[in-house]
Structure formats: structure tokens, C-alpha cells
Design goal:
about 100 residues, alpha+beta, Arc Repressor Mutant, subunit A, about 15% strand
């Protein structure tokens, strides 16, 4: 039961969309905003809103990269990687208890 309470305390990763963002970012480290938007089939405004929540929590860093034109990149932070991994371990612990 404590593991379930622990999961419910994480309002950032409790959102399926934000969890999906983090799951996509973890193995890649950094992706472009457009790639995330296309993979997760989100509108720019919806993704931006979720990314701002993740950034405010310290899970991601959002910045501009300049190639042929300015693009927005999203990078997982150390805190974001650790928190997401812990969240998944707790989720696994709950599921394996059944």
C-alpha cells in the first residue's frame, strides 16, 4: 500500500502523456520538439503545456538549437531520469505483487 501512495504523490509522472514523454526521452537523452509531437501525436500547445510542467519540476531542459533554422530541443535531466526510473520501479513492485 505504501508503494501505491508513493505513486499517487508524483503528480508530474501521474499524467500518461508526461510519463510517455519521459519514457521516450530516457533512452534517447535529447529529441526535437517536433519529433516528440509526431511520435506522441500531440498538438504543439498540448505538448508545450506538458513540457512546461516537466521543466518546472526539473525533469527536462528545453532549449533552442540552431541548424538550418532554430529548433526546440528537449533533454532529460539527471533528476528526470532518476525520478522516472524510481517511478517505474515502484510501479513494477505494485504490479508484481498481484
Amino acid at each position: 500500500m505504501e508503494a501505491l501512495r508513493e505513486l499517487s504523490r508524483n503528480h508530474v509522472l501521474g499524467s500518461p502523456t508526461r510519463l510517455a514523454v519521459m519514457l521516450y526521452l530516457l533512452p534517447r537523452g535529447r529529441v526535437l520538439f517536433k519529433e516528440l509531437m509526431e511520435v506522441l501525436e500531440l498538438t504543439p500547445g498540448n505538448l508545450d503545456s506538458h513540457l512546461k510542467t516537466l521543466e518546472k519540476a526539473g525533469y527536462v531542459r528545453i532549449y533552442k538549437v540552431f541548424a538550418d533554422r532554430p529548433r526546440t530541443a528537449v533533454e532529460v535531466t539527471k533528476k528526470g531520469a532518476e525520478e522516472t526510473t524510481d517511478y517505474l520501479k515502484t510501479l513494477k513492485k505494485i504490479i508484481s505483487g498481484f
